[in-house]
């Protein structure tokens, strides 16, 4: 009954990845904006946020591809 369970997990994981890994640590650590650590953290956040966005698009694409061959109670 849950034909897209893996695809939905991928989509939720792609969106959940961004705030847990980058936004929350920067809010709690609060490095100075002039420090190298701040700019390194910011650049890592930008790169991996882009990867998370690409992963979300890929998950939606995979769901649309799986929807074409979906059959309820199919014998897999």
TrEMBL record:
The chain crosses the membrane at residues 6-24, 36-60. It comes from the Eukaryota. Residues 2-62 form the Amino acid transporter transmembrane domain. Keywords: Amino-acid transport, Membrane, Transmembrane, Transmembrane helix, Transport. The keyword Transmembrane helix applies. The keyword Transferase does not apply. GO terms for biological process: amino acid transport. It is found in: Membrane. InterPro entries: AA_transpt_TM (IPR013057). Pfam families: Aa_trans (PF01490). One of its GO terms (cellular component) is membrane. Its main location: membrane. This is Amino acid transporter transmembrane domain-containing protein.
């Amino acid at each position: 009954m849950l034909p897209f369970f893996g695809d939905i997990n991928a989509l939720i994981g792609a969106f959940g990845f961004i705030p847990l890994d980058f936004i929350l640590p920067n809010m709690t650590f609060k490095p100075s904006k002039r420090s190298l650590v701040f700019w390194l953290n910011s650049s890592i956040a930008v790169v991996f946020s882009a990867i998370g966005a690409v992963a979300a698009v890929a998950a939606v694409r995979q769901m649309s591809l799986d929807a074409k061959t979906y059959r309820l109670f199919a014998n897999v």
